[in-house]
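User: I'm writing a short report section on ligand binding and want a predicted complex to refer to. Could you take this sequence and zinc ion and write out the structure as tokens? A short remark afterwards would be nice.
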Amino acid sequence: MIDLHHRRECPICNSPKSLILHDAVSTINEESNLTTELRECDECSHWWNTPSPRQAELIDLYKSGSLYVIGKNWDVETRKPREEGVFHTMITNFKTDMSDMNYLEVGCGGGQLFRSMREKVGLCYGIEPGDWASDIEDIVVDINMIPENLSFDLLVFQDVIEHTEDPIDTLSMYTDRMRPGATLFVAFPNKDAPNAQREREQWDMIRPFGHLQYFSKKSLSLLMENTGWEITTLRKGPNTFPLTALKTYNPFRTLKRLRGNDQWYVQAGKL
Ligand SMILES: [Zn+2]
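Assistant: Sure. The structure tokens for the complex follow:
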């Protein structure tokens, strides 16, 4: 039995005022009839699903490959190469010479970006609770397995923050391991996108308990500010999430998504 926790204050700005956009969104586990709310913050217009499992239980659900957090075809899709979109280019072209940099990637999935970056940087570690890339050396299941004396210059979160119950806590935990002047690259769902605004709880990024957080321009700015990062580049674009892993996959939606701005791509410098 999953222990669900209600979060009525905004997970980003803590405002107690929010609107219930939908009171019974199904989870991605088709075998379960559990539902969760989709809420919108009055203050920063962030969207989140509540109730949800707490962070520690979420990680256990990923480790055990639970259908509550992992789509039906996810396992196969995650191992396939993704389209190398905007985000991949932002990171791999960040600097011509990154040979003296330490790289940390959180949520490596199938390890595609990690493999590219390993060729470029001096030292790299990845963190991935699922076992999709466990064959790759230096991908570990949590940060405690990385030597304590190591600090990093580059931090990457690709499609990770939306999976967490508390984005500020999660990002802060890794920020503490960054050197002064470090650079962060982070990608997550854009709830200001036309597809999101039109489809609301039907939007294909709404996939509890896999996804729980959907960012407005204001909520992403607050996330950065509250974790000690200054945004240097902010882009919108289609995401490169494995298409057939979505519960709502169909060709029409796929086309809309490929043309949409459903994802934020952020580059930020450590303050
Ligand atoms: Zn808020």
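A remark for your report: The pocket of zinc ion is lined by residues 10, 12-13, 15, 41, 43-44, 46, 219 (CB under 6 Å). Helices lie at 55-63, 74-79, 86-92, 112-118, 167-175, 194-199, 217-226, 251-258.
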